[in-house]
Structures are given as C-alpha cells and as structure tokens.
From TrEMBL:
<protein>
    <submittedName>
        <fullName>Uncharacterized protein</fullName>
    </submittedName>
</protein>
<dbReference type="GO" id="GO:0005975">
    <property type="term" value="P:carbohydrate metabolic process"/>
</dbReference>
<dbReference type="InterPro" id="IPR007822">
    <property type="entry name" value="LANC-like"/>
</dbReference>
<dbReference type="InterPro" id="IPR012341">
    <property type="entry name" value="6hp_glycosidase-like_sf"/>
</dbReference>
<keyword id="KW-0862">Zinc</keyword>
<feature type="binding site">
    <location>
        <position position="345"/>
    </location>
    <ligand>
        <name>Zn(2+)</name>
    </ligand>
</feature>
<feature type="binding site">
    <location>
        <position position="344"/>
    </location>
    <ligand>
        <name>Zn(2+)</name>
    </ligand>
</feature>
<dbReference type="Pfam" id="PF05147">
    <property type="entry name" value="LANC_like"/>
</dbReference>
<dbReference type="GO" id="GO:0005886">
    <property type="term" value="C:plasma membrane"/>
</dbReference>
<dbReference type="GO" id="GO:0046872">
    <property type="term" value="F:metal ion binding"/>
</dbReference>
<keyword id="KW-0479">Metal-binding</keyword>
<feature type="binding site">
    <location>
        <position position="286"/>
    </location>
    <ligand>
        <name>Zn(2+)</name>
    </ligand>
</feature>
<dbReference type="GO" id="GO:0031179">
    <property type="term" value="P:peptide modification"/>
</dbReference>
Length: 461
C-alpha cells in the first residue's frame, strides 16, 4: 500500500505573510535544537559498530591504502575516501604547514591509490558493468575528486619550491583533467557495456545507450542507479563530458520514457519483455523520483548555460520539463516519509528534490504568479515565493514535527537517527538551505545544495 510509506501533509502550504513568518521561526527553532543534538552525538557509539563514512557521519577512517578493495568501493559517502577528501580540503589549504607531513599526505596517497586501483580494474576489464554507482563506487569517487578540485587547484604553496609547493602540485595531478577523464571514461565504458547486455537480453531497440548494474541489478535511483551516476557525470567540467553528451542525453530521455503513470520511477530498469508498468511505491532519493528530479533539473539548467551545448532537442526539453513537473507533484504529496527525516530515504531528500526543481520551474512561473489578480490590498513580499520553493518549504516545515510524529508511531526512527544520510544531520542541512533561500530570494541557485551529492555548484561558485 503506497499510503503506508508516507504521512499525509497535515497543514496547508504557507501563503500569507504570517504563515511564512511561522515557517521561518519553526524551522529556525528546529534547526537550533537539533544541530545541538547532532553535535552531542558526534563520535558517540550507538551499538552499530564503527561508522567510517560521511553517510553515517562518524570520523574514524582507516586510511591505509591496503584498505582499498577495488574501484567499486571508493565512494565519497560510504568509504574512507570521503574522510580523506575532507581532510585534504581542510588543512594544507589554509597554509597549515605543520599538518602537511602526516595526515594530509596519508589522505593524498590514499586517493592516489584509489585512482591507480580504478585504472587497474579497467586494464582487467571484461564484460563488466558493475561498481559505478554513487553510494560505494566510481561515481562516488568522481564526486570526491570534483569536491576537492576547486579547493586545491586554487591554492599555492608559497611559490618557493618548498615542500608545500611540491605537495600541492601532487594534489593538482591527482585532480587534473586527465584523472577525471580516466574515471569518467571508465564509467562510460561500463555503461555502454551494460546497455549492450541489456539490449542483448531483451532484444529491442528501446533501450538506453548507457545503463549500469550494481550487484547484477540495474537500479535507476540516486544511490545505486543510473540517476546518481549521470548526476556525477554532469557535475564534471563540460570539456570532459562534451563528447559523451549524446549518450547521456539519450539515456536521460529513456529514463523520462520509463517514468510510471503516477510520476514516479521503478527501482530497476524495466523488463522490456513485460508489459507491466513497473510501478514502485518508494519515493525517496535512493530509489524513486527525488534523484530523477535533481538530474532533470541539472540537465535543463545546463541547456541554458552559456558555453554548454547539451545537444538536447526542443522536443526532449519539453518532455524533460513535463516529466519534472509530474515527478514534483508526486514527491510533494508523498515526501513526508515514514522512514524518517534523512537524505537517503527521508524527508530531507524530498526537500532537496523540490529545491532542485524550483531552480528550473519557479524561474518560469515566477512572473505569472506575481501578475495574478489579487484583492485591493498590496501583495506582501512573502507571496512572491514561487510554487515549487513553497512546496519544499512546506515539507521542510512538516519535518519540524518529526519528534511528535515519531512519538505517535507515525514516523520510524532510523538505525542511525542523527547521521547525515539516514537521520537528523541531513534534515538540518535541508532546513538551513530553506532558511538561506528565504533570506536570499533574488539569487539564482546553481544546484539544490544536497550535501555529498548536488552541492558542487555551490562549492565551485
Ligand atoms: Zn535510502
């Protein structure tokens, strides 16, 4: 029963000035209280064993290169690569030379070994299409490289030819176009191979040019599937992906074609020999519509970005917009998830999906909503908030009731209730994003800001 997975929205969306004031105050209060609680749990054991990842939010990484298994276990979110990237970002770049000798070099060597392992895997490449997803694999490694690239490449070590110069130079090589190109090509190559197998298995031309598997299953969502992998490819500098754009756009078009009749996506690529619609009642970032909304918003934004030629046709663009609108309606109505408030399969993931769409769809609807006829009283400025941002803010506000919903048994407590991807830390990020946009409404946003996934536009600019 789809109704079992989400809680019906129990307040009206904010419209009037006083509604928006209440949303802002409630979100601010919830953020203040819960950030404190998240901070209190940092480093604490919760009976679940070690948590060496960004996903579950504890920092006790095993940064020895021998701990790298293969190219399929190198992600930012779920492996020590993420911790290494955070350490590399933070220390030498603020000129702390004392730090250079120990942890920083260890982290750099860890990532260098990651690149080597990816290349070794490719040399032994067979008929493989596995290990490219975001949560553990190559697309997650690509995110780590992109995350670091803009911090490291802008720094210098003083120019005196000293040790810091040398170390930063070695980092630049790690994060060079050439390295990114290798990882991107590895992902594309496996996607082409996966598509070949898919076509072979189902004997039809109605298949995408790129598709990947994870543990032999062809997932479509953000965590393990095509949406997440394509998102990371599109996050690369355009010169690196330009030659692959026809395949990327066609694959997105295929994803749009397999959207189900209610506006969601199935967890896996459909069996083309079956006539079933493959409908899915999971509407969460890891499986279902939210990651697709972020992907569609990204490609649509790229299509109006100067210097970027996506090759998307007018018809495709229209299809993508309609698909995005249908997906948004579904995510808004089913976004208050019973699984909790985290990014992966909780409310925060729904909020970021609507924020991504807001950057595209609200742009178009902004003028008409402002020009709508109204009463004789002057329109308060808060009514200028456009519909998709309003939906995102409404969901974020509903999440401020998470404590009472959990107390009543309507919302479940995740295994790691304070973590970034399962728990409250992710919701705190989403609340902060909502508050930021309430205060900076005239800014255009280059990404949704979802940490570890769709925040590179924020980091770059
Ligand atoms: Zn999940």
């Amino acid at each position: 029963m789809p109704g079992q997975r989400y809680i019906r929205l129990f307040t009206e969306p904010p419209k009037r000035n006083c509604n928006w004031e209440k949303v802002e105050k409630d979100v601010e209060d919830a953020l203040r209280q819960n950030v404190q609680k998240v901070q209190q749990t940092m480093g604490a054991r919760d009976g679940q064993g070690k948590r060496e990842s960004i996903y579950l939010g504890d920092v006790e990484a095993s940064l020895t290169p021998r701990n790298i298994r293969d190219g399929a276990h190198l992600s930012f979110l779920e492996t020590p690569v993420g911790i290494a990237a955070l350490v590399l970002k933070k220390y030498p770049l603020v000129g702390n030379r004392a730090f250079v000798d120990a942890p920083w070099q260890k982290c750099r060597d860890f990532l260098l070994r990651g690149v080597e392992v990816t290349m070794e895997d490719d040399r032994n490449f067979g008929e493989d299409d596995d290990g490219c997803e975001v949560l553990y694999g190559r697309a997650g490694f690509l995110y780590a490289l992109l995350f670091l690239r803009n911090f490291v490449c802008q720094k210098d070590g003083g120019g005196d030819g000293g040790k810091l110069d040398e170390d930063i130079k070695s980092c630049r090589e790690l994060l060079s176009d050439a390295t990114l190109q290798k990882v991107v090509h590895s992902i594309i190559r496996r996607g082409r191979n996966g598509a070949k197998t898919y076509r072979f298995e189902f004997g039809t031309a109605k298949s995408p040019p790129l598709i990947w598997a994870w543990h032999t299953k062809r997932y479509l969502g953000g965590a393990h599937g095509a949406a997440g992998i394509l998102q990371m490819l599109l996050s690369c500098p355009f010169s690196i992906i330009s030659s692959y754009m026809p395949e990327i756009v066609q694959t997105i078009d295929w994803l749009v074609c397999v959207q189900d009749r209610v506006g969601n996506w199935s967890t896996r690529a459909p069996d083309l020999n079956q006539s079933t619609s493959g409908e899915n009642d999971l509407v969460q970032w890891c499986h279902g519509a939210p990651a697709m909304l972020i992907l569609l918003s990204t490609i649509l934004r790229m299509s109006v970005t100067p210097g970027v030629t996506t090759g998307m046709t007018e018809k495709q663009q229209e299809r993508f917009v309609v698909s995005l609108q249908r997906g948004c309606a579904h995510v808004y109505m089913r976004g208050l998830l019973r699984k909790g408030v985290g990014l992966c399969h909780g409310v925060a993931g729904s909020v970021y999906a609507l924020l991504a769409a807001s950057g595209i769809l609200d742009e178009a609807s902004h003028t008409s909503s402002n020009d709508a006829p109204d009463s004789t009283t002057p329109k308060p400025p808060q009514e200028r908030f456009a519909p998709y941002f309003t939906q995102a803010a409404h969901l974020a506000h509903q999440a401020t009731f998470a404590g009472s919903l959990t107390g009543k048994g309507e919302m479940k407590t995740p295994d790691h209730p304070w973590s970034l991807y399962e728990g409250m830390a992710g919701m705190c990020c989403a609340w902060q994003e909502i508050l930021y946009r309430l205060k900076h409404r005239d800014r255009s946003f280059l990404c949704s800001g979802m940490p570890g996934y769709d925040d590179l536009g924020r980091l770059v600019h």
